[in-house]
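User: Let's play a game. I give you a shape written as tokens, and you guess the letters that built it. Ready? Here's round one.
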């Protein structure tokens, strides 16, 4: 560590600090407010697969990294047990898999907007009924909206424990990739959360 610290000091200490604040594009609040965004697009895939993707543009969520509200919603949407969207669609023989979430990358989450997507891998029969599949997805999201977050925090705490276990027992990553990830985290999180801010859930705030 002493050697590494010496190298870093020698190499980087001469880089001037211009004292400028981090750029923000938060004033651009409607990046997708165009007629083209509210449409259905049919795309012919390269490989033989039927996939339905529904995407919402939301207000920026990166400030809520300690709560991770989109992670909470994606957990519910992606649930595969009894009463879930996927279990219903599978009974209809319309879908094989379903994924919902936000990749927390620069394109999907930044100071202007956050993207939330739900992708459904359809069967041949499901492709014939993709309007109904989309309707079911919207019904489920509407139900979540009406019910609101879990009052007892049970679901949130379950997600929190699972993410904590994955963090503590994760495999060692390539040091170069890890440093790159930490540098990105330094632009997004408070100092005490550089190591954990992109993975752990810290606070339960149902209003968020």
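Assistant: Ready! My guess for every position:
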């Amino acid at each position: 560590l002493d050697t590494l610290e010496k190298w870093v000091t020698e190499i980087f200490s001469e880089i001037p600090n211009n004292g400028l604040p981090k750029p923000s594009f938060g004033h651009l609040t409607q990046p997708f407010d165009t007629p083209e965004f509210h449409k259905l697009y049919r795309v012919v895939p390269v490989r033989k697969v039927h996939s339905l993707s529904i995407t919402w543009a939301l207000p920026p969520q990166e400030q809520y990294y300690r709560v991770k509200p989109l992670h909470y919603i994606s957990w519910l949407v992606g649930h595969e047990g009894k009463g879930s969207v996927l279990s219903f669609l599978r009974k209809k023989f319309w879908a094989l898999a379903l994924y919902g979430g936000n990749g927390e990358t620069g394109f999907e989450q930044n100071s202007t907007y956050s993207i939330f997507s739900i992708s459904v891998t359809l069967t041949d029969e499901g492709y014939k009924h993709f309007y109904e599949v989309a309707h079911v997805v919207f019904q489920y999201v509407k139900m979540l909206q009406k019910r609101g977050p879990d009052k007892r925090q049970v679901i949130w705490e379950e997600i929190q424990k699972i993410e904590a276990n994955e963090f503590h027992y994760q495999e060692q990553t390539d040091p170069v990739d890890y440093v790159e990830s930490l540098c990105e985290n330094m632009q997004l999180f408070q100092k005490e959360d550089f190591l954990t801010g992109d993975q752990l859930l810290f606070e339960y705030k149902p209003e968020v």
